[in-house]
Design brief:
The complex is a heterodimer of chains A (469) and B (212). Chain A has 15 helices and 19 strands. With 469 residues, chain A is an alpha/beta fold. Chain A is globular and about 55 Å long. Chain A starts with 5 loop residues before the first helix and ends in a 10-residue tail after the last helix. In chain B, strand 5 (149-153) and strand 6 form a beta hairpin. At the A-B interface, helix 2, helix 3, helix 5, strand 8 and helix 10 of A face helix 4, helix 6, helix 7 and helix 8 of B.
Chain lengths: 469, 212
């Protein structure tokens, strides 16, 4: 029998039909829906006189536009409110397996609430009108972001018209050193292969360092697959996956659980399976990462320096560096540790889970944010993460250190609500994109791990978290 | 969907690699629940000198004279020439909506990001991949000759100048080509296979009952 990759197995078990050119009708098990990319899709359905195919595949929440404070006052921005209201209306009219609206106790970032409720299960095909859908691949499922026309297509047909990608293996061998996290793995991988390095591929992450990660860590790594250009990232199922899922609200129970687990254990690449591209990284050589530019591949270690464009030979790359440094307000050869910051954001679908908040709180505990840091924002990924953190007293650690403890949502990862950077403001952020204007027009984003963001908040500039202990 | 067969149009050059969808259409404009009206805010942060907000009249905003699309010679361009990895980042379909609404029908680059590439085909916008050398040459021609036009023929899979001095072939998946040539409604097309989907679904959910 042919040795199959995990991606082959997931793909083949969902093919409804394939055209002669490879275009495939792929069945979708789980459809996550949020307010930004769904209104036009529901509108399209309505105009064509169609109905959703299988509403119990849908799990929905409002996350991008929702404010992170003063929830009793509702949504002040009228355009944001229109979008959230449209989601309410569409979900009320058509129904779903679960809908966690604004202010619901289980509301949160779609890529946080899916897994924590057991709505993301191994072996599933998972889609959402959101590029960070790759996050769910951490559970040994095939998960990728789609556009709004495809959201409408999945609503109407329960299928996606797509073609198979190439398979890439990213193996991170050895043990991750003290002070380094899943985020540092993700940024180191992107630094190595570039933001288009995974284009046209589905990545399977493996190796000892990935196996040793918790589900939260694996989600962080898979989340940033899209930042390497890959639509999908995935990790094989193991005991970590299974023990995370047991007892979650939408996970199977009893006899069904046993049957499911038996199947889930087969969800890994066979020995000798062929990948189109293989990348290997030595985890022991990874150091805490900090981005310096306007794309996630513009990254170095905390011990590194801002690059000098004069040393770059490729003119297109050189212009890219020059433009990034101008936008970021940085001089070539500046030590990363000398860069002072104005704001800190701990949150986003990359790093807002309980483990992320614990890692940040551990650094913050007993310390205080630096005076030059105008705002240090902690935004839990969901209502459930928030309550768990509060039970552990993490909120009090943050507030005692001068941080703000907010309600869940996407928040300052992209600033569709009121949480934004002002022009020229520099931020240590645990989010996933440092594009121009991403966190607010003129805002300057440096991507880091939660521990590194917390350490920067305390010092007022980037510091090596390994020296803080 | 709007069909695409042949187009002869003015070419505008956007000489930057890795143009992301946050740049193509910034987040504040994603709050609209419509598919149209994004054109005035295409490349908003690069195109205007002030900060754009939804609902403001873009006609009265100060233009950035250094931004290439604001140069009079590129007014009315329908073909956008770009560099590698165009459309990276977010899955927002608002990006192709904005490009289309502005007036572009064809994008030419050495590579595109996957989700963006897909989204273009769903909106009558043709993304053409040419080699880096070919794209370099087109940048040179576009900048050297004001009024430089190209004819893009999807049926023949060719990009060419009127006099035929430059002619480059390109690849496109047959299914996408077929849908775009005829402006087909993909959902309608998929629903012609509804029985097959139902049969697959019944078997799939019976074998893995925890999925339903």
């Amino acid at each position: 029998m042919t040795a199959l990759t995990l991606y082959d197995k997931l793909w083949e078990s969902h093919v409804v039909r394939t055209e002669s050119d490879g275009t495939t009708l792929l069945y979708v098990d789980r459809h996550f829906v949020h307010e930004v990319t769904s209104p036009q899709a529901y509108e399209g359905l309505k105009l064509a006189g169609r109905k959703p195919w299988r509403t119990d595949s849908i799990v929905a929440t409002a996350d991008h536009n929702t404010p992170t404070q003063h929830w009793d006052q509702g949504i002040a921005d009228p355009t944001s409110r229109v979008q959230v209201d449209a989601l309410d209306r569409n979900l009320r009219e058509h129904g779903a397996k679960a809908y966690f609206p604004f202010r619901d106790a289980r509301q949160g970032i779609v890529h946080v609430i899916g897994p924590e409720n057991g709505a993301t299960l191994p072996g599933m095909t998972v889609v959402c009108g959101d590029s960070h859908t790759s996050t769910h691949g951490a559970f040994g499922c095939l998960a990728f972001g789609i556009g709004t026309s495809e959201v409408e297509h999945v609503l109407a047909t329960q299928c996606l018209l797509t073609a198979k990608s190439k398979a890439m293996s990213v193996s991170v061998e050895g043990a991750l050193p003290f002070g380094c996290t899943a985020k540092d793995i993700a940024l180191a991988v992107i630094g190595k292969i570039g933001i288009a390095g995974g284009t046209g591929h589905a990545i399977e992450f493996g190796g000892a360092a990935i196996r040793a990660l918790s589900m939260e860590g694996r989600m962080t790594v898979c989340n940033m697959s899209i930042e390497a250009g890959a639509r999908a990232g995935m990790v094989a199922v193991d005991e970590t996956t299974i023990s995370y899922l047991e007892g979650r609200p939408f996970a199977p129970k009893g006899e069904l659980w046993k049957r499911a687990v038996e199947y889930w254990r087969t969800l890994r690449s066979d020995a000798g399976a062929r990948f189109d591209r293989v990348i290997t990284l030595d985890a022991t050589s990874i150091a805490p990462q900090v981005t310096w530019g306007t794309s996630p591949e513009m990254v170095t270690t905390i011990e590194g320096r801002v690059p000098d464009p004069d040393r770059e030979k490729d003119p297109l790359v050189r212009e890219g560096i020059e433009r990034a440094l101008t936008y970021m307000g940085l001089e070539p050869n500046t030590a990363m540790m000398d860069i002072r910051i104005d704001k800190v954001f701990i949150g986003s679908c990359t790093n807002s889970r309980i483990e992320d908040l614990r890692a940040a709180a551990k650094i913050v505990s007993g310390r205080r944010k630096a005076d030059n840091v105008k705002l240090a924002l902690v935004v839990p990924g969901s209502g459930q993460v928030k309550r768990q953190a509060e039970r552990e007293g993490l909120d009090r650690i943050f507030t005692a250190a001068g941080f703000e403890w907010r309600e869940p949502g996407c928040s300052m990862c992209l600033g569709m609500n009121d949480d934004r950077l002002g022009p020229g403001e520099r931020c240590a952020s645990t989010s996933n994109r440092n594009f121009e204007g991403r966190q607010g027009p003129g805002g300057r984003t440096h991507l880091v791990s939660p521990a590194m963001a917390a350490a920067a908040a305390i010092a007022g500039h980037f510091v090596d978290v390994r020296r803080l202990g | 969907m709007q069909a695409f067969r042949v187009l002869t149009g003015l070419v505008a050059p956007l000489d930057r690699a890795n143009v992301d969808t946050d740049t193509i259409i910034p987040k504040q404009f994603l709050k609209s629940i419509n598919r149209s009206g994004f054109g005035p805010n295409l490349f908003d942060a690069w195109r205007y000198l002030d900060r754009g907000e939804p609902g403001t009249d873009s006609a009265s905003r100060p233009l950035n004279p250094d931004f290439v699309l604001n140069q009079p010679r590129y007014k009315g361009a329908q073909i956008l020439l770009a560099r590698r990895n165009f459309g990276c980042g977010s899955s927002r379909e608002h990006a192709p909506w904005a490009l289309g609404d502005y007036g572009f029908r064809v994008l030419i680059a050495p590579s595109f990001a996957d989700i963006f590439f897909n989204n273009c085909f769903k909106n009558g916008l043709l993304p053409v991949v040419l080699s880096t050398v070919e794209v370099d040459r087109l940048f040179h021609e576009t900048e050297a000759f004001p009024g430089f036009k190209l004819t893009v023929d999807l049926e023949r899979q060719m990009v060419a100048t009127a006099d035929g001095s430059l002619a480059y072939g390109f690849e496109v998946e047959p299914f996408r080509k077929h849908c775009l040539l005829h402006g087909l409604d993909e959902i309608g097309l998929t629903l012609t296979h509804a029985d097959e989907i139902r049969a697959f679904e019944a078997k799939h959910l019976a074998a893995k009952p925890w999925l339903s």
